[in-house]
Write a structure and sequence with these properties.
45% of the residues lie in helices and 10% in strands. The protein is α/β, with parallel strands linked by helices. It has a single domain, classed as Aldolase class I (TIM Barrel), CATH 3.20.20.70. An eight-stranded parallel sheet has the order 7-6-5-4-3-2-1-8. It is globular.
């Protein structure tokens, strides 16, 4: 029997205690590498040919003018506008935050991206500009992008970013531990980072768990890492850091969308998905939105539940938006050239 065969009371366990909830879901008294391995490896295997064929089919769907205009605005609103370079400066981050508030100065009806994503030490400079505008601030943490640091360092990294004003934390899992089968270690790290996201007032920054799918080798590992991340308390599952190729592919995202859909069916809890890295054109973004609608469902067509980790994508979406409005491309010279190269 797999998890998909059993309905679970959403109130079972506690969202404040991921280990208790996981024990309830697994039906075990102790959460160990053995029990997690048995459960994760009992998940249905991924049909690689079938997954890639379905992704290719979804990518051929045609979107007409009115629907395309809606999809472009939705995609803009889902972007985590990102700069994660060693050369980032306060001025660069302030500039990116300013652009998030006014993505297209020629058309003030253009929606703002969902968030600005930066390193933790850059959070205060983003907050100076964004204030309480509604554009969130996401900070990468836990020794991004490698995740190679001690737990005290990872937790301090997280707490510092939350204290500086981050609304969301994008953490990286220890891929080495995952691939070695040390599932309880990965679980404990995610759960501890989730606890470190809590603020003194009792609220919590949302946690996006980066699995770095390009290093997980197989689709089965992507499915297992997705479920492990959700079990441990992640609010989002995220494909990539943007530092490894391949990054966000449509088949991988499809598998993750299936995971959050099935998680909600089992637990009653809705979680988010964030593909990041390599999504650069409006055509690409629309393919992903089609997959969201067809695989997870229309409830996920909202930036609370789906994000794009991107920066250069915004430029192309704005150019396409302008073309729909005036019937011609205005040219890239009329779009701010401030997109970092990472994504």
């Amino acid at each position: 029997m797999t998890v998909l065969d059993t309905a679970v009371d959403p109130a079972a366990g506690s969202t404040e205690d991921p280990a208790a909830r996981a024990r309830d879901l697994l039906g075990v008294s102790r959460l160990t590498d053995t029990s997690l391995t048995r459960w994760l490896h009992a998940l249905p295997g991924v049909d690689q040919v079938g997954a890639e064929a379905r992704a290719a089919s979804l990518g051929t769907r045609s979107i007409k003018t009115t629907s395309k205009a809606w999809a472009i605005d939705l995609a803009i609103s889902m972007i985590d506008l990102t700069t994660l370079e060693g050369a980032d400066t306060p001025g660069k981050v302030r500039g990116l935050a300013t652009r998030a508030l006014t993505p297209d100065p020629a058309d003030l009806t253009t929606p703002s991206p969902a968030a600005v994503c930066v390193y933790g030490d850059m959070v205060p400079f983003a907050r100076e500009v964004l204030g309480h505008s509604g554009v969130r601030i996401a900070a990468v943490a836990t020794a991004f992008p490698s995740g190679r640091a001690s737990m005290p360092v990872k937790l301090a990294d997280t707490r510092d970013a939350v204290a500086a004003g981050a609304d969301e934390i994008d953490m990286v899992i220890d891929r080495g531990a995952f691939l070695a089968g040390h599932y309880r270690q990965v679980f404990d790290e995610i759960a501890a980072v989730k606890a470190a996201c809590r603020r003194p007032d009792g609220t919590s920054a949302r946690l996006k768990v980066i699995m770095e799918t390009g290093e997980l080798v197989t689709y089965d590992n992507v499915r297992r890492a997705s479920w492990l991340s959700m079990l441990a308390g992640g609010d989002f599952i995220k494909t990539s850091t943007g530092k490894i190729s391949p990054a966000a592919t449509l088949p991988v995202t499809l598998i993750m969308l299936e995971a959050v859909r099935d998680w909600r069916e089992v637990t009653g809890q809705q979680l988010g998905v964030k593909p990041a890295g390599g999504i650069r054109t409006s055509k690409d973004a629309i393919k992903f939105l089609v997959a969201v609608n067809e695989v997870a469902g229309p409830e996920w067509l909202d930036n609370h539940w789906f994000r794009f980790g991107a920066s250069s994508l915004l430029n192309d979406l704005i150019l396409q938006r302008q073309r729909l409005a005036i019937g011609a491309y205005s040219g890239s010279d009329y779009v701010p050239d401030d997109a970092p190269s990472l994504y």
